């Protein structure tokens, strides 16, 4: 039985079954886990409410508020003084993760650690990042379902592909997307894969997130897998996640055999992509990455005009939403480093 809510379940029915089922499992694992020892369900719902509000997702906010006794206090920052100090700090941190994860650093994690364990910090970050995914996924699916007749969004300026915006030569894919390591800001994270080690502080959320990402990125979907990787790259560029840009830029090149498009996107921007379908994909992913998301019905019509059907667009929305989640975890809990 899903706990994601009636309205959300109706929207998720548009997704392919593997993505839908894993999204429902993720909702339960992150927002309503059976294990309350890390962060209580009440605090998880409070965090999700704040994230919905910063994303202007009022439908989700109202749905969550109905489950929280002090929802009106959580909604109004000026009334937070009536909340315990640790709760105030937790909400402020999670709101920053949702708004701009690039502004979260070692100091913010250290401040939170004065009140919470490493495992609790990871669990709270998972909630903020997941709620960012959820808001974008549902709003994107609503747009696809409600998209009627009307004008399509314009592509905007196109600059010559093959050179950077300032006229310089482009890098090779190997130069543009180097192999990076990731260093955790969370105590108790060690080994070659510090990201997995860090997220194992909240194993249920990690398992749900991993399964959902695998379904979205590698499942038998409608949108070409190389184009899914291009959308992941576009989202990560907007969010400023250097680590994800490296991973998914390389993967796009590998899957497509195209050594130009991903590099052009990373170094010259969307305007340098001449192919109208790929340009529509990266523009839509970039708009969905913003906080609040800027994707609108004319953008969906433009995707259809470029040759993508509804199932293609559902896949695209799922990818861009997934990387709103992944980028936030990677940028808040650690930082990318170049191997010496």
From TrEMBL:
GO molecular function, one term: peroxidase activity
Gene3D superfamilies documented for this protein: AhpD-like
Domain Carboxymuconolactone decarboxylase-like: residue ranges: 203-266
Protein name, UniProt field: Peroxidase-related enzyme
NCBIfam families xrefs: ahpD_dom, peroxid_rel
Membrane spanning stretches: none
Record key words, sorted: Oxidoreductase, Peroxidase
UniProt xrefs under InterPro entries: AhpD-like, AhpD_core, CMD-like, Uncharacterised_peroxidase-rel
Pfam families: CMD (PF02627)
């Amino acid at each position: 039985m899903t706990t994601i809510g009636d309205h959300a379940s109706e929207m998720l029915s548009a997704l392919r079954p593997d993505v839908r089922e894993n999204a429902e499992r993720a909702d339960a694992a992150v927002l309503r886990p059976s294990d309350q020892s890390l962060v209580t369900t009440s605090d998880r719902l409070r965090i999700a409410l704040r994230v919905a509000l910063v994303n202007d997702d009022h439908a989700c906010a109202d749905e969550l508020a109905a489950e929280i006794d002090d929802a009106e206090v959580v909604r109004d920052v000026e009334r937070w003084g009536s909340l315990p100090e640790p709760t105030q700090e937790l909400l402020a941190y999670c709101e920053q993760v949702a708004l701009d994860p690039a502004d979260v650093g070692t100091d913010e994690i250290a401040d939170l650690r004065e009140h919470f364990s490493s495992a609790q910090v990871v669990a709270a970050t998972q909630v903020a990042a997941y709620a960012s995914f959820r808001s974008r996924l549902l709003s994107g699916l609503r747009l696809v379902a409600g998209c009627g007749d009307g004008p399509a969004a314009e592509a905007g300026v196109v600059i010559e592909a093959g050179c950077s915006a300032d006229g310089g030569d482009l890098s090779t894919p190997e130069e543009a997307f180097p192999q990076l390591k990731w260093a955790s800001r969370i105590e108790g994270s060690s080994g070659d894969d510090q990201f997995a080690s860090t997220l194992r502080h909240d194993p249920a959320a990690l398992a749900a997130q991993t399964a959902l990402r695998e379904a979205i990125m590698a499942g038998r979907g409608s949108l070409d897998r190389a184009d899914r990787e291009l959308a992941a790259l576009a989202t990560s560029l907007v969010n400023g996640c250097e680590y994800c840009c490296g991973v998914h830029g390389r993967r796009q090149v590998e899957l497509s055999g195209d050594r130009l498009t991903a590099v052009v996107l990373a170094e010259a921007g969307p305007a340098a992509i001449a192919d109208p379908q790929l340009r529509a994909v990266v523009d839509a992913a970039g708009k969905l990455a913003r906080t609040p998301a800027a994707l609108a019905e004319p953008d969906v019509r433009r995707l259809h005009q470029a040759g993508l059907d509804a199932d293609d667009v559902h896949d695209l929305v799922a990818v861009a939403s997934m990387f709103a989640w992944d980028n936030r975890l990677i940028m808040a809990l650690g930082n990318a480093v170049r191997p010496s």
